[in-house]
Amino acid sequence: MEPKIKIRDMNFYYGDNKALKDINMNIYEKKITAFIGPSGCGKSTFLRTLNRMNDFIEDTRVEGKITLDDIDIYSKDIDPVELRRKVGMVFQRPNPFPKTIYENIVYGLRKNGVNDKQILDEVVEDTLKSVALYDEVKDKIHKSALELSGGQQQRLCIARAIAMQPEVILMDEPTSALDPISTMKIEELLLDLKENYTIIIVTHSMQQAARISDETAFFLNGEVIEHGETKVIFSNPRDKRTEDYITGRFG
Amino acid sequence: MDNKELQRIKSRKLKNSVFHGLIFFCTIFGVIVLALLLYDILKKGLPWLTIDFLTNFPSRFPKKSGIFPGLLGSLWIILLTAALAFPVGVGTAIYLEEYAKENRFTEFIKLNIANLAGVPSIIYGMLGLAVFVRALSMGRSVLAASFTMALLILPIIIISSQEAIRSVPSALKQASFALGTTKWQTVTGVILPYALPGILTGTILAISRALGEAAPLIVVGALTYVSFIPKTPLDQFTTLPIQIFNWSSMPKREFQNVAAAGIIILLGILLLANSTAIILRDKYQIKIKD
Amino acid sequence: MKKIDFKSKSGMQRNEKIVSSVLFLFGIISIFTTFGIVFSLFEETVLFFKEVSILDFLTGKEWTPLFEPARFGVLPLVFGTFLIVIFSSIISLPIGLGSAIYLSEYAPKKARKILKPILEILAGVPSIVYGYFALTTITPIIKSIFPDASVYNALSAGIAVGIMTIPMVSSLSEDAMMAVPNSLRQGAYGLGSTKFEVATKIVIPAAFSSIMASFILAISRAIGETMIVAMAAGSTPKMTLNPLESIQTMTGYIVQISLGDVPYGSIGYKTIFAVGTLLFTITFILNIISRTIVRKFRRVY
Known about the structure:
Membrane topology (chain C): Multi-pass membrane protein
Low-confidence stretches of chain B: 286-290
Main location (chain C): membrane
GO biological process, one term (chain C): phosphate ion transport
GO cellular component, one term (chain C): plasma membrane
Helix content of chain C: over 70%
Oligomer: heterotrimer
Number of strands of chain C: 2
Keywords (chain C): Cell membrane, Membrane, Phosphate transport, Transmembrane, Transmembrane helix, Transport
Shape of chain B: flat
């Protein structure tokens, strides 16, 4: 199968500091790829290169090549705004806008020129259903999103991301701020979503990576130490450092 | 513990108590002055506060004097000043917080704004006189006064708007960008709605400041005795504070009471403006919650 | 889900460019303002100095620009301003600092909640109102103590300017003291210090530079204050240290001339720009000093 995203000889710099070194990776369509590794290993930075969110940080630089469907996403002709429409993102902490549930979901659509009420209504219902939030909030979709619980807010943020009909969804530790039950619901949700989306998830929890991902990449000090099928990584890692990390013998 | 030591602790505690009393007095000194000031003004001004006072023109006779031209002049200038200063001030704040790169030039703009905030208001009057009244031939008009006032309050609006914009959580901005929006869309979609209460509060405070200013307008050429009301922005004008100033400097003692009545109106408007700021802010915050 | 057709972004990109240019233009208006101030002041000042030597202006002890013989020594106006600064500082610096210490170190939360808004109201009262207060309340009190005092005098105006600048000293100093970390205080309390000792030996030294900066700003503000002195200090330029006499400040002079019918281009018209330039320069230097102190001595805890 042809990879959805290809990363070739990629380096990333904060000023003079090389934060990511020689990354080469293939990410496949309609699979969940998990990035694991200790704090500060570069996995979040790497995730953010895939939708060019690092562009907002001054004095950063990318070398090498990242392609989405064989198109170089760092080429001059690519508008990062359009790229982010195709590559959605969910953040570590739920960050709904201080608006209604409805307005949260349609925000991206409205800003991209979709104003037909019928379409928007449909999208709100569909996305709420696909994140299994519809039954819980159907009576208050015109109430503030801030009244929802943390887990509900995070599912709303996922709904907001998929309302844009992205091809890829990036998730930066989406359950680290949630309780175990909310976490479980989101994990179930991700397994459903991978039918339609390519999902890349950064996680601190090795159990989570093992439970939901198809592929796992282990990051250490800005390098990818090992990348492959999740089953293999967890049962039979090639690298000693990977083994140390997943068995918890790591600082 | 021997006696000496006890004595020492006692004296330290005494020092503390005396100091406590002293600085408490310092703090309520302001309260006392404010109370005295209000009492004085209300006592002198209230009996003079009639409907006629609001609708009359100034007169040689204290009893017939009214504040109408000043009231309308202030209204004209405030509306025009706000219309000029608000978009530019908020725009500058957006530029500095969201668009400008962190470089020397941006630093220079920020330093410059901070310095402008410390320039005495009368200097703005001289700028207005040289640039708007003379060079741009606006004459001693409402328009020239409004431009002058707009420049005067611009730093206040910019600085308070910057603070409000800085208070927008970066998580919200990132969420917006990640949904494929441009910078301006994020500004209008997330940043401004979130920062608006703070921006409005700052703006209303700035406009209150303009409402009470007299010095720059005297330099720009406000009239002190006016028997007409401005009909266009190019007309001459007087304002509330300038009328008050004029009455205060009249030799007839009764005019001091007329001035006090004018001050009651001025303070009343300022109070109203500030309460509006608070109500507006609260109402807006409720709207976000719903 | 149905596939949604998005509009192309090219129009949006064009908007984005226009918006950022417009915002940039707004951003540089402040720079134009500064240039405008400097130019408009200097232009007339240069013309003024073609007729009057700078030395005479800065060192002359008589200021009678509109009378014969016209003399253009600015020192009487500087002296008048200086008197106002002295008396306003005697009021605003200690009282402002005292209330800052009270609010930051002593006040219970409830008291803070009531007192701070009152100080804010005090800061929001227009200077014209303080001018009125000086004229109708402070001056009569002064005259009842010193019957020889003039109806317009430096003391009354100075006190009113001082009252007006209290909130400024208080809130800036309080901010500085609140920024002193609690760990420093707790260390001293742990050694059995009283609040007085903590405030004077720990907090004030730690916040010293910012307190000084707030003092300088208050002085700069007093120098630039106009309406109070125009109403209560008089219009008699003279070199005196007697606060009970009528004097005139730099700002008071500018107002006096602006109220009269001084024709454009006359020497009288030029004098207000020369005085304005001096005023601007002095306040500008003080503001820079204040800012430098804050920046240079800012403690990193």
